[in-house]
Amino acid sequence: MISIIRKLGPGLLFAGAAIGVSHLVQSTRAGADFGFGLLWALILSNLFKYPFFLFGPKYSLATGESLLDGYYKLGKYVLLIYLFLSLITMFTIQSAVTIVTAGLAIELFGITTDITIWAFLIIFLCLLILLIGRYKLLDNLMKFVIILLTISTLLAVLFAGISSTNELELNQIFPKETLSIAFLVAFMGWMPAPLDISIWQSIWTLEKKKKEKKINEKEIIFDFNIGYLTTIVLGICFIALGSFVMYNSGETFSNQGGEFAKQLINLYTNSIGSEVFLIIAIAAFTTMFSTTITCLDASPRTMEKTFGLLGMKKIANYNLWIIILALGTLSIFVFFMSEMGLLVKIATILSFITAPFYAFVNFRLINSKYTPKEKRPSKAINTLSIMGLIFLTCFTLWYLTIL
Q1: What is the CA radius of gyration of the chain?
Q2: Which of 35, 110, 120, 358 is exposed most, by the fewest CB atoms within 10 A?
Q3: Model confidence over 181-234: pLDDT tens digits?
């Protein structure tokens, strides 16, 4: 068992990045507002996005390159589109995950109720971990965090299920009101994660290969599948928590990160019992801390690689971009706190409507001349990919027509 855990790496980093706002916030809210009615959206999103996330480590293993190298080979314009989309979303995404983490830190640790101070502390701690330990420390830390997160979340669901007076209803719901549709789009956009995280996964895979020379393709794919399965199971768990605790209760969640964190923990402990406060708080905080630190690591890596490929060597620097991202995130806290809800909404909807772009580019690349024939996907995976492309494209077009 220990030897298996030791081999895990990029898959758990994927889980750490994915299990954040999409799970703790969106999945819990889905359970609170719709019960288990949006389970279909969670399952379809995970099913149809799976091959496009899988192509990240698969391409890196086949070629020894990241997806960004492949994007550049497909055409410089593809890489420029990616760069544009990243620059307009990465600061907002980092701010979104940090504000929820800071809100949970207030509930768990107290000390101060100033969410901006906590945001500074969390970003500073993440910076220290990443600048001192780089990939190796992040890899080892995430194994501990994801295991702790999984155990505490499963315990929370168990306590909630035992204490709940709600009947277990599995009737599926398709929202028809404008606000509910907007929530559905945001939910699916970040479930289990935005598709550009496939690029992060390809870079982490290469880092893992540098660290462990003897690692093989089966181990990396197994690692990825473990991470992906973890995101599905925990997504269902957070829907269950929201459903058991809040569905039909008349309560609604605040859109403010700090207030949401307080509501989340208070409602769980009020319904399940104050004796499990620590379990709930640890589960929630580790969820968001893992996302905060993996996002803070991944975006600078992609910026370093992207600008390097574009020939801008002076700004192709990991340390430079991690500082830029940290300062940009903290600036949003200081100057745009009142607009945080709008910024997050824009980021989640952009993640949804750009999903077909990333899906198509990943599919085209993995089946192109740049991937050795023997390393290309099986017919089954390609069939699922085509179904996923149709699903993501049709759903996006449908949403754009009703805006």
Answers
A1: 20
A2: 110
A3: 878 887 887 788 888 888 988 888 887 777 666 667 777 788 788 888 888 988
Distant-in-sequence contacts of 172-176, Cβ < 8 A, 24+ apart: 172/36, 172/37, 172/38, 172/39, 172/40, 173/34, 173/35, 173/37, 173/38, 175/34
The CATH number of 2-402, from 3.40.630.30, 3.30.450.20, 1.20.1740.10, 3.60.15.10, is: 1.20.1740.10
φ/ψ bin of 273: left (φ > 0), alpha (ψ from -120 to 50), beta (otherwise): left
For the chain, the structural domain boundaries read 2-402
Structural tokens at position 37: 């009615």
Structure tokens at 315: 């700004």
The two most distant CA atoms of the chain are separated, in Å, by 61
pLDDT interval class at 10 (50, 70, 90) = low
Q: Closest Cα to residue 80, out of 90, 68, 93?
A: 68
CA angle 32, 33, 34 (to 5 degrees): 100
Task: Tell me how far CA of residue 142 lies from CA of 148, 289, 314, in angstroms.
Answer: 10, 10, 31
Whole-angstrom distance, CA of residue 321 vs CA of residue 313:
13
Cβ partners under 8 Å of residue 297, min gap 6: 130, 135, 138, 322
Measured between alpha carbons, how far is 251 from 33 in angstroms, rounded to an integer?
Answer: 9
Name which of 350, 351, 349 is nearest 198 in CA terms: 351
Exposure string (b/e) for 28-39, b if CB count within 10 Å is 16 or more? bbbbbbbbbbbb
pTM: predicted TM-score of the whole model, two decimal places: 0.83
